[in-house]
Each structure stands twice: as structure tokens, then as C-alpha cells.
Amino acid sequence: MMNKFRILIPEPNSKYIRVKCSQCGYEQTVFSNSTFPVRCLSCGAQLVFPRGGKAKINGDILKVLG
Predict the structure, then answer these.
(1) Which residues pair with 28 in a beta bridge?
(2) pTM
(3) Cys-Cys link to 63, which of 6, 8, 18, 46 (CB 3.0-4.6 A)?
């Protein structure tokens, strides 16, 4: 097990996520640690609810990018 301080190049825990809207089926890329509410570009339903750290995703997660 590696110690946290022995990691030479730290990587962030946040990622971009491909989300499918549960109401209209539109696919959109959002940030996992979003600090601002994200709405669907097609129907206007709220996809991301910010919660300080990781955001609550309200939709189907299709793919984690990067």
C-alpha cells in the first residue's frame, strides 16, 4: 500500500461524466464536482445538484471520461 505522500504526481478525484437526461434522453457532459446546478440543454430539467464536494447526478450515468 502506497502512502499518500509517496505519490509523485497527484491526480484529482474529480472527473467529467457523460449523463443521459431521464426525461428527454438528451446526452450531456457534466463535471462530477460541479458547484453550479446544471440543467438539460433540451428540456431544462436539472441534471446536477451541487452538494459541496461531489455533486448529486439526477440522470443515467453513461460513461466516466478521463
Answers:
(1) 19
(2) 0.75
(3) 18
